Amino acid sequence: MPSFKFPFVFFLSSLFLHASLAEIVCEDLPPDVCAYSISSSGKRCLLETALDKNDEVEYQCRTSEVVVEQMAEHIESDECVNACGVDRNAVGISSDSLLETEFTNKLCSPACSHNCPNILDLFFNLAAGEGVFLPDLCEALLINPRRSMAEFMSGSEVARGPGVSEEGLLEDDAPAPAPNSLE
Question: Which contiguous run of DSSP H or E holds residue 33?
Fold first, then answer.
């Protein structure tokens, strides 16, 4: 009976070598894969602009202070970027995109919401920061897109901005029952 001890040890050692070489450091990532990536330390990478020595704008990848629970060493796939409607070249990420029906439709689509946990987690947290539960927004979008955007805006002082009342956002809308969370 042949011994598999040496090949198995060799296989394990190659895995450890590969793992040590594959460490993701945001500052080492090229700008075109920076956004929606997570470093080996579990912190989100973000794309920023800076002036180079010739005072020309250049893009740089930086490590944010935002830690992603239970996810590290992740570079988002092009499939998820396309399915979720996000832009890898966008500098900074804002909850403002949740006000755009086309974007929210893509984010809430099964192709994104069932396959892209990193992007979904990011926008879930952005929505929560605005006082909105993303699954409720997605469900409301399916039922009545205009109403869901109005509800999002009425739930967020930042989205509303100064001088806009909740009543003004909801006029001409018929009352609708509160949506339940998605699956």
Answer: helix 31-34
- Quick check: 172 and 144 in contact, CB under 8 A? no
- The number of folded domains in the chain is 2
Domain hosting 118: range is 77-183
On whether the pTM is more than 0.90, the answer is: no
Question: Each residue of 140-182: pLDDT tens digit?
Answer: 888 876 665 555 556 544 444 443 333 333 333 333 333 333 4
Of 68, 67, 75, which is closest to residue 28 (Cα–Cα)?
75
- Please report whether residue 82 resides in a domain: yes
Does 8 fall in a domain? no
Q: What is the arrangement of strands in the sheet containing 43-51, beginning at the earlier edge strand? A: 57-67, 43-51, 37-38, 74-75
51 DSSP assignment:
E
Q: In which residue are the tokens 């947290």 written?
A: 125
In a domain, residue 13? The reply is no
